[in-house]
Amino acid sequence: MAAMLIAAILALPILVVLVNVLIGDGEVWRHLYQTVLAEYISNSLLLMLGVGIGVLVIGVPCAWLTSMCDFPGRTLLSWALLLPMAVPAYIIAYTYTGVLDFAGPVQTFIRELTGWRYGEYWFFEIRSLGGAIAMLTLVLYPYVYLMSRAAFLEQSENTLEVSRTLGYSGRAVFFKLALPLARPAIVTGLTLALMETLADYGTVQYFSVNTFTTGILRTFYGFGDIAAASQLAGILLMFVAVLILLERYSRHRIRYHASGLKKASNRRMILKGSRGFIACIFCLLPILVGFLIPVGVLSYWAVFKAEMPGANFIQLAWNSFYLAAMASLIVVSLALILSYAIRLNNGKAVRTSVGIAGLGYALPGTIIAIGTIVPLAWLDHRIIDLVKHYSGERVGLIFSGTLVALLFAYTVRFMAVSLGAVQNGLGKIKPSMDMAGRSLGMSPFKVLTRIHIPLLKGSVLTAMLIVFVDVLKELPATLVLRPFNFNTLAVRAFELASDERLIDAAPASLMIVLVGLVPVILLSRSISSHLNKSK
Amino acid sequence: MTSLPPHKLLKEMTLTDVSVGYDGDAVVKNASFKLLEGQIGCLLGPSGCGKSTLLRAIAGFESLMVGEIRIDDEVIASQSHSVNPEHRFIGMVFQDIALFPHLTIAQNIAFGLSAWPKEAAQERVTYLLNLVGLSGFESRYPHSLSGGQQQRVALARAIAPKPKLLLMDEPFSGLDAKLREELVPDIRAILQHEKMSALLVTHDQMEAFAMADQVSVMSEGVIHQTGSPYQIYHRPETRFVASFIGHGDFLTATVCGPDCVHSDLGNIRGDLDHGFADNTQVDLLVRPDDILHDDDSEFVGVIVSKWFRGSHFLYRVKLSSGKVIYCFASSHHNHSVGQEIGLSVHLDHLVMFPR
Question: Most buried among A235, A407, B144, B212, using CB within 10 Å?
Fold first, then answer.
């Protein structure tokens, strides 16, 4: 019961957006269609196309090289390739803008060297669609890298050796066998990266590329037109739905493609001399451009150039911290309730409810924000009317425009992540362990305290940590739903950057990146320990 | 310090008309049997026959629809009343072993000893580790042990609090054949050494015969027969038991006397009255070891297929009536497929079912 109620509440934002699409009046539609829709669709599609190609070109070869070959620095590179995941796209975007725009050090250096002046030379304009593609590619390729690497490592060595004995060369094995076998995993990684691309707001807004997310917020803020914003959110939702279906489908196929013999390959192709050097450079480049350079620049700005962080900064950090902490507590508690509901009653209704509750991970923050604010504002107005009717007093907004709305949106968005971690942990506690505890004289409560809690501690902490960091990085939903004058690190960094105060945004950005590193390190550690176990 | 529950051996566990099920659908129907002090019992049956459900009902993880489970003088479960699992003093070993991964081997074994004085618990753990042959593994964690070692720890953990009864749910099914052969006699010896009554659930009759003093054969929720392995094999009471245990074929036969039937292989006499009236049509159970190769016999069959088993041959032979049966022959009698051989029947006790 509780599980179904939670699921129903969490599904509310999607339902609201869907209903708005269905009941939307033709006038709004026609207006959108005549003016901005074509631009939003073409920009969003081009962005997805560019990022899709980019993440494949970087992610798949790096995964192949680090999983199947051996070359200098391979071990270090194989986990360092995950580092760009810690950098939110909007932060890398304005960091590179600061470096590459007209007044930045690169162009200044060129001018000093050559004596050219403004307009006398051509330089790559980063604040463009191409720039946005590059920025998103740099931080999203790890999804493809991660999924395809896992797939390559799980390919049984025997399968590959059989094809060698049947007369295939190393290269033919890659294209004829390894790549097709890994394809479902690669597609899964790709869809995840594309979902993030569709969800991105900070980068495209900052680069003035008009996509759905920027359009939704502009319609919502600029024109106060909730109906049109919901319409746009609905179209975006259809894009997302296609990706979700694609992702589910390819995840499904991964199981069929996994061979029975799971064994980490221990006989790697050894790349010697210049080939090894090229492989090393190829894997180093994404790390350099996607992590080392931007973090180096941010650190330099934060330490030497930016205003000294004062009381204001501490307030921001505190806001971010307690928001993230509260959200992770709420989300993980609900995830625990849902997971135990499945464990105690593995019925179809409960399963479906939990499935729905976990759908939010694919939804862009903007959709969730719109889907949250519409029903909450409606509810608030009903309450205000009601109170006024009976007592004559005027009360303020209760849900919308308060932290409640924000925390609700975070819960919808990040439930899936924590559900995954908690269910994973709970899955390791077999039902027979409960029975063993009971038959050894423990009451149900003691079984909980002596078996479940110690065994679950790790995964619950991981879930909380991941939600904490995700909330810290989240931009569009926070931007829309935060209470008046309430700022977080992410919002402040974005605002400063939008005001062209790139350098002053550095301390907040650096802090977000550093905190974001923690789950990435955890992830790489869990991967390497998983591989060690399977050896 | 709480006082220890007085350790007593089980005198007798009685199940009377026990039905277990969900939503009015009985998975186990009217099960009744007794288990006596020091006995090792076994619930044997194909998967899905309800044997594990019955075991879990005895442990206290399923409630009864009807019937009563009694241990010594106490009713531990009935339709209206159920003692909580933790108060039944029944230990259990699980199919998936279910060691606690966050505890060391010693802590796992000591898990049920929290009410014991510290020294006594420590002593018990050391004793059991020694008994199951795992001294020196105290501070290791379960994941670093092999499957067989983990199963020994699970056994030690279950018998540590000296339960009145030990339940084992397919305890060997996760282990490979060689390990199983080593472990089964070991565990039987440990249980006998501890004078522990136990009830085992398995689908493997060789395992049941090797472990158990008393076997209850189950099918589709019903206990067909409870008896010693010898009785179950040689004196099956239902057609299911006859066909489920060992190889067996049914010969069409007609009753021709109180201890005699007439079949394709001539008149066969048993040593006991079978209780059927003359001229009744029956099916007669014949085991491969009941049919012997005999060149002097007037009854013949054609060999359809054969297997070399080292000490003997197992032939599949087609009789003139078209019936196909198994037949043992010593490994000196090497015949080829298609050849005709003489057959004679050696039955002590006639096992027959009405047609």
Answer: B212
Question: DSSP label at B321?
Answer: T
Question: Residue B150 to residues A262, A346, B90, B96: CA-CA distances in angstroms?
Answer: 23, 29, 20, 10
Tens digit of each residue's pLDDT (9 = 90 or more) over A243-300: 888 877 777 776 655 544 444 445 677 888 888 899 999 999 999 999 999 999 989 8
With beta carbons under 8 A apart, name residues in chain A contacting B158: 436, 439-440
Q: Identify whether residues B83 and B222 lie together within a single domain.
A: yes
Question: In this structure, is residue B274 part of a structural domain?
Answer: yes
**3-state SS class at B74:** strand
| Sign of the torsion angle spanned by Cα atoms A368, A370, A373, A377 | negative
> Does the global pTM surpass 0.90?
no
Q: Name residues 8-27 of chain B within 8 A of A (Cβ).
A: none
Tens of pLDDT, residues A317-356: 888 888 999 999 999 999 888 888 888 776 777 777 777 7
Between residues A259 and A361, the one the model is more confident about: A361
Q: Would you say B342 and B300 are in contact if contact means Cβ atoms under 8 Å apart?
A: yes
Are B161 and A440 a contacting pair at CB < 8 A?
yes
Residues A141-169 pLDDT 10s: 998 998 888 888 777 666 666 666 776 77
Distance from CA of A532 to the nearest CA of B (A): 14
Q: Where are the alpha helices (DSSP H) in A261-302?
A: 273-287, 293-300
B299, B343 Cβ separation under 8 angstroms: yes
- Amino acid occupying residue A160: L
A2 to chain B, closest Cα gap in Å: 23
Cβ-based contacts of A453 with chain B (< 8 Å): none
Last residue of a domain, one of B203, B221, B241: B241
CB-closest option in B98, B115, B160 to A430: B98
Q: How far apart are CA A94 and CA A498, in angstroms?
A: 9
Same structural domain, B33 and B74: yes
Q: How would you classify the pairing of strands B214-219 and B197-202?
A: unpaired
The answer to whether ipTM exceeds 0.95 is no
The sheet that has B249-257: what strands, in order across it? B266-269, B260-263, B249-257, B281-286, B352-354
Number of other residues whose CB lies within 10 A of the CB of residue B1? 7
Please give the class, per CATH, of domain A1-15+306-499: mainly alpha
User: If you search the block for the tokens 């439930």, which residue do you land on?
Assistant: A415
What is the C-alpha to C-alpha distance for residues A258 and A261, in angstroms, rounded to an integer?
8
Q: How far apart are CA A289 and CA A135, in angstroms?
A: 10
Q: Residue B309 is part of which domain span? A: 248-354
| Three-state SS at A311 | helix
Which residue, B241, B269, B296, sits at the end of a domain? Answer: B241
**Cβ atoms of B293 and B341 closer than 8 Å:** yes
| Phi-psi label, residue A412: left if phi above 0, alpha if psi -120 to 50, beta otherwise | alpha
Angle, helices A2-23 vs A403-427, to 10°: value is 130
Q: Is there a domain that residue B101 lies in? A: no
Nearest to B161 among A441, A454, A455 (CB): A441
Could B60 and A441 be called an inter-chain contact, meaning their C-beta atoms sit closer than 8 Å? no
What is the helix (H) or strand (E) element at residue B129, kind and residue range? helix B118-131
Question: Which of A20-34, A313-327, B18-32 bottoms out in mean pLDDT, i.e. has the lowest?
Answer: A20-34
Cβ-contact A77, A280 below 8 angstroms: yes
Q: CB-based contacts of A436: which residues, under 8 Å, 6+ apart? A: B92, B94, B98, B100, B154, B157, B158
A-chain residues within 8 Å CB-CB of B163?
439
Inter-residue contact B160 to B125 (CB < 8 Å): yes
In CATH, what number is assigned to the domain containing residue B306? 2.40.50.140
* B286: phi then psi, degrees, rounded to nearest 5: -125, 130
- Which of B3, B92, B95 has the most A C-beta neighbours within 10 Å, making it the best mutation to test the interface with A? B92
Examine the pLDDT at A113 and tell me if it is beyond 70.
yes
CB contact under 8 A, A441 and B115: yes
